[in-house]
Specification:
single chain, about 625 residues, alpha/beta, ABC transporter transmembrane region fold, six-stranded mixed beta sheet, four-stranded antiparallel beta sheet, about 60% helix, elongated
């Protein structure tokens, strides 16, 4: 790929304009305004897809709350009905009834946990699938402006937090709410005058919850963002471990990582102190209120206003209501963190690619007879507005023709393939394929016509077989073996312990650069597409492998349209047409012998790469 042509995100908010060439970088953090707890709507949207599980879980939760309230309500009957009669037999029915309630409580708790946990797993799975599917539609420039490792962290850490909310926090909050409301209703039925005291307690508890909850939300988001940075730094260091060690930068990398970890700790410390303050205040309020309730209640028993059983029941219900309300405070702080996680995921889902797609795209014929043309194309990468990678560039490639594009690094060669694959749209001019403006075609249909071999072979952490079949998953084993043989992969694969089942590790780290390049070529061969795009496809091969692979590529080029990007001129001497690119413009066109004879840039490059004898033969 051309050095110096760094690109940024080609994405925009879904409510923003979508115009050709409008490729200003858009990062998720500024794309959508998501405030407070409204971000949780996304979670409830996905929960609603499983209404059966949701309502069954709520019913089980309702039963557990009713059973808990029933146990507390039975205290009055035991104290007044049983102890008042001073007979062990009198209280026996009450305790037997409580055993029955406990049985119902146990069964309800089991189903509540099971159903809500399953709901949480399904919701998180759906969110992860939706976000991942959406991100796969983003242009490559989006991932250059937004770190892939940080985005991956959102798919793991943020969704795990959402899972905890769905499976634990939401059921806990509903249970606490039901128990608090139920306890307050029972208190009203027993002693209506106490309800005012309970409502006063509720206000006292909720005020600090609201105040500290807002602080926790802000700190939680900051904390989670910094945690994502920790993973990003670690991933960068591990991916480039040989470079780090070769340049003896272990200490510097560790220091950089340590600074980030310390920042995470400092933000987390503030969040924990805020939550601890909230717990302190609510605990004091709850137990002071209970003590005051016991004091006034004891006086009421002595005055004959209430019975001893009613006092015990009121204290139990008051404690249940107070602890439930206090737990709601803790729930709100966790929900604030979940709102931050849901907000970040919603922002990713809200980002839209700036590459417009027609609602009714033109259809491409299923034939190899498809020409390519660039008509007066000018293009500048969004990161370098005004600095054109291509300037009034025009090129025509006939069906079945092999066209080579050569030039110095940074001349704009790889940009041609970037625009043809429509990773970007040009600011001026048009790119046509099979006489269709590619902006009128479906991205899937367009890219299905190309077999692309990038300059840096992209392999996945999977087997050799899976990596090559990535080009065409429906290919037979015989076709797979033939593609590997054509790309000169057979010998080194046979030397591996598991053959084509060999696991390659992340980015194919277990293979050499040349071996990875040959597998990328095999994948392109297996794809069997009408157009072959080679971006320095043999740059990582030794001379012997290059000769074998070049023969395979030449066979593959037959009856196919081919565009070859090359620095090594030995790979393009047989091209039907060679185009020399310099600073985004074509400065010469012709065959190898013609260009050598003309002099100029191509002749200078050839002189650096060929012997005098080879140059004389060319002329």
């Amino acid at each position: 790929m051309d050095i110096g042509n760094k690109k940024t995100a080609s994405a925009q908010p879904k409510n923003g304009p979508s115009k050709p060439g409008n490729q200003n970088a858009e990062k998720p953090k500024g794309s959508v305004v998501l405030k407070s707890m409204s971000s949780l709507r996304m979670i409830f949207h996905y929960m609603w897809n499983y209404k059966g599980l949701l309502f069954a879980g709520i019913f089980a939760l309702l039963m557990t709350s009713l059973c808990t309230l029933a146990i507390f309500r039975s205290l009055e009957w035991i104290v007044d009905g049983g102890f008042g009669a001073q007979s062990p037999e009198a209280i026996k029915p009450y305790f037997l009834a409580i055993f029955g309630v406990i049985a119902v409580l146990a069964v309800s708790t089991f189903f509540r946990f099971l159903l809500i946990a399953l709901l949480g797993e399904r919701v998180v799975a759906d969110i992860r699938r939706a976000v991942h599917k959406h991100l796969l539609t983003m242009p490559p420039s989006f991932f250059e402006a937004n770190r892939p490792s940080e985005i991956a962290s959102r798919l793991t850490a943020d969704t795990t937090l959402i899972q905890a909310v769905v499976s634990g926090v939401i059921p806990m909050s509903l249970s606490s709410l039901l128990q608090a409301v139920g306890a307050l209703v029972m208190i009203v039925l027993i002693s209506p005058t106490l309800i005012f005291a309970m409502l006063g307690l509720l206000v006292l508890i909720m005020l600090p919850v609201m105040y500290f909850g807002k602080k926790v939300r802000v700190l939680s988001r900051a904390s989670q963002d910094r945690v994502a940075s920790v993973g990003t730094l670690a991933n960068e260091a591990y991916s480039a471990i040989q470079v780090v060690q070769a340049f003896t930068r272990e200490e510097e990398e560790n220091e950089r990582f340590s600074r980030t970890v310390r920042n995470v700790y400092l933000v987390a410390k503030k969040r924990i102190m805020t939550r601890a303050s909230l717990v302190l205040i609510t605990t004091v309020l709850v137990y002071v209120s209970l003590n005051l309730g016991l004091w006034t209640g004891a006086a009421a028993v002595f005055s004959g206003s209430i019975t001893g059983g009613e006092l015990v029941t009121l204290l139990g219900l008051g404690g249940l209501a107070a602890t439930s309300i206090a737990s709601l405070g803790e729930v709100i702080t966790v929900l604030q963190r979940a709102a931050g996680a849901a907000g970040r995921l919603s922002e990713l889902l809200a980002i839209r690619s700036s590459l417009p797609v027609k609602e009714k795209p033109a259809e491409l014929a299923d034939t190899f007879d498809q020409a390519i043309a660039f008509d007066n194309v000018s293009f500048a990468y969004p990161s370098k507005p005004g600095i054109h990678a291509l300037k009034q560039f025009s090129m025509a490639v006939l069906p079945g023709e092999t066209v080579a594009i050569v030039g110095a690094s940074g001349a704009g060669k790889s940009t041609v393939l970037q625009l043809l694959l429509r990773f970007f749209d040009p600011q001026e001019g048009t790119v046509t394929f099979a006489e269709n403006d590619i902006r009128n075609l479906s991205l899937q249909d367009l890219r299905a016509k190309f077999a692309f071999v990038p300059q840096e072979a992209a392999l996945f952490a999977n087997t050799i077989e899976a990596n090559v079949l990535f080009g065409r998953p429906t290919a037979s084993t015989e076709e797979l073996i033939a593609a590997l043989d054509a790309a000169n992969c057979t010998d080194f694969i046979k030397a591996l312990p598991d053959g084509i089942k060999t696991y390659l590790g992340e980015r194919g780290v277990r293979l050499s650069g040349g071996q990875r390049q040959r597998l990328a070529i095999a994948r392109a061969i297996l794809r069997n597409a009408p157009v072959l795009l080679l971006d320095e496809a043999t740059s990582s091969l030794d001379s012997e492998s290059e000769d074998a692979v070049q023969k395979a590529i030449e066979a593959l080029m037959e009856n196919r349209t081919t565009i070859v990007i090359a620095h090594r001129l030995s790979t393009v001497r047989k091209a039907d047409k060679i185009m020399v690119l310099d600073e985004g413009s074509i400065v010469a066109t012709g065959k190898h012998n013609e260009l050598v004879a003309q002099g100029g840039l191509y002749a200078r490059l050839a002189k650096l790469q060929f012997t005098d004898i080879e140059l004389k033969e060319a002329v």
